[in-house]
Amino acid sequence: MTHSPSRRTFLGMSVATVASAPRLSAANERIVVGVMGTGGRGTSLAKTFAERPNVQVAYVCDVDPARVKDAQKAVSAVSKLEPKVVGDFRRILDDKAVDVFVCAACNHWHAPSAILACQAGKHVYVEKPCSHNPREGELLVAAARKADRRVQMGNQRRSYPKIVEAMQALREGVIGRVYFAQSWYTNNRTSIGKGEAGPPPAGLDYELWQGPAPQRAFKSNYLHYNWHWFWHWGNGELGNNGVHMIDLCRWGLGADYPSQVTSAGGRYRYKDDQETPDTHVVSFDFSGGRTITWEGFSCNQIPLKAVEVLFQGETGSLAIIGNGYTVFDPKGKEVKKVPGTSSDAMHVDNLLAAIRSGEKLNSEIEEGHKSTLLCHLGNIAHRTGRTLHCDPANGRVKNDPEALKMWSREYAPGWEPKV
Ligand SMILES: NC(=O)c1ccc[n+]([C@@H]2O[C@H](COP(=O)([O-])OP(=O)(O)OC[C@H]3O[C@@H](n4cnc5c(N)ncnc54)[C@H](O)[C@@H]3O)[C@@H](O)[C@H]2O)c1
Question: Reduced to 3 states, what is the DSSP secondary structure of residue 321?
């Protein structure tokens, strides 16, 4: 059986674009949701959506039947209606009653499925990073514009009130002109070992799990979750957790696209199949004298976890700590401390309000793309072993054909995203 979209499916999609485009709902109208990918993240999002007033999660979808059953149970426990279980997300897109498509599958699926969803007339909540490579991000922004759909990336800190307040304070000059944002992520991940070739787990549709990524024979340490550490499907820790912090850095600095990107690091802690670095230091320079750095320690729990992002300005510094913030004077003395609050529901509510009443999205896909692109550029600098020089108008790499080869990817036949 092959899963590539047939010509008929594509033609069907374009007709559906006109026929099934959901209306912007009235303020209290019910919103119908379908969720693709029911690992830890998708199950949690499905539950969060189902708990919102006047929202029905009508579908949960996974290529792994074992996982999707648990998601169905989690949704049923918080809502009156049991969601339908499907293995192919295109059944969600076919249903005209669905307003919102949620993608919490693996990174190689984010943009390809979100683009098809826009073309089927759905609004989209797409997990971070919103793309597997820079070109996909550009196409996703174009697809959202073309179909006039609300597309939100899952960088939920954009909706946390005390982080919003911190960013406002930076803009109002609480530490003067801000010129540097430093961020890091730490974890104590164990080795993924050496994978063994063999058949995929019984019942799992491995061909559809791969979808747009050219098919590779199964190995025991690819899934679940460990696909993050293979370039074919994932984007390493930088695209996994780095994107959250880098997004805050970019927001606080008011920076869009970089002029220069550097990378240092490697897979240092363990010798195994992991391709992406466990120790990674990236830097991004922006016009006007502004720099972002991110340090990723995937396998080394440094004792500095509390501070996620530190901004430095001409008259002090501001640290984002536990989704709140602390302001320091130029001598390092604490002058203000604001505790944080957080919940995924805040970000979900923002998307629902954008659909129902035109509220501005907190993480509109173009902003999500800019932060995701920084991660891709950091990874491309790592893989080429070179400093990248970029066009500050759009982030495109200049004068480096090898780096530009990684601007996109090869696709499995029939799955190339098109807008
Ligand atoms: N915003 C956040 O804070 C946050 C937190 C965790 C994860 N995430 C993101 O969410 C995504 C999922 O993370 P996870 O930890 O649950 O990963 P995971 O690998 O555990 O789960 C992914 C699920 O998607 C399923 N899947 C793959 N292809 C599919 C397809 N074609 N159709 C349906 N299902 C498919 C897999 O079978 C699996 O169950 C990742 O992209 C990750 O970056 C975001």
Answer: strand
